[in-house]
């Protein structure tokens, strides 16, 4: 569990750093559209950091469930936000890695669906 929390805190730290970098250093470099895309990546990363903190501190999930949800969201952040960062900060074009961002989105969706299934099963037991 602590490994998940350490990774989550690292992802939160990088979201803050990247958000500040985007707001200050990239304002003059990126177009408005590129900056909006970059901010979307930061926002999705931070949203899921908050969810990961809740998931890993919530007693209603088993350790296995916490680990599975965490892995899904870690992969999702890496693929979704990471691909957007790459596209906006490097010479890599979206045409080269177009499939990575939606794949990350799919991992977010699977993580949320897994939580729905877990909660529905718990609801049916009560």
From TrEMBL:
InterPro entries: DUF423. It is a multi-pass membrane protein. It holds the Pfam family DUF423. Its main location: membrane. The chain crosses the membrane at residues 41-58, 70-90, 96-120. The keyword Transmembrane helix applies. It is found in: Membrane. Keywords: Membrane, Transmembrane, Transmembrane helix. The keyword Transmembrane helix applies. It comes from the Bacteria. Belongs to the UPF0382 family. This is DUF423 domain-containing protein. It comes from Polaribacter marinivivus. The lineage of its organism: Bacteria, Pseudomonadati, Bacteroidota, Flavobacteriia, Flavobacteriales.
């Amino acid at each position: 569990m602590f490994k998940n929390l350490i990774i989550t805190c690292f992802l939160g730290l990088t979201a803050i750093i990247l958000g500040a970098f985007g707001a200050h250093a990239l304002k003059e470099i990126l177009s408005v559209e590129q900056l909006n895309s970059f901010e979307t990546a930061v926002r999705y990363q931070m949203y899921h950091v908050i969810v990961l903190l809740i998931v890993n501190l919530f007693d209603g999930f088993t350790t296995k469930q916490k680990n599975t949800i965490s892995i899904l969201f870690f992969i999702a952040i890496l693929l979704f936000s990471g691909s957007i960062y790459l596209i906006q900060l490097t010479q890599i074009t979206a045409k080269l890695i177009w499939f990575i961002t939606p794949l990350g989105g799919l991992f977010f969706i699977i993580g949320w669906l897994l939580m729905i299934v877990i909660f529905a099963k718990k609801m049916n037991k009560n």
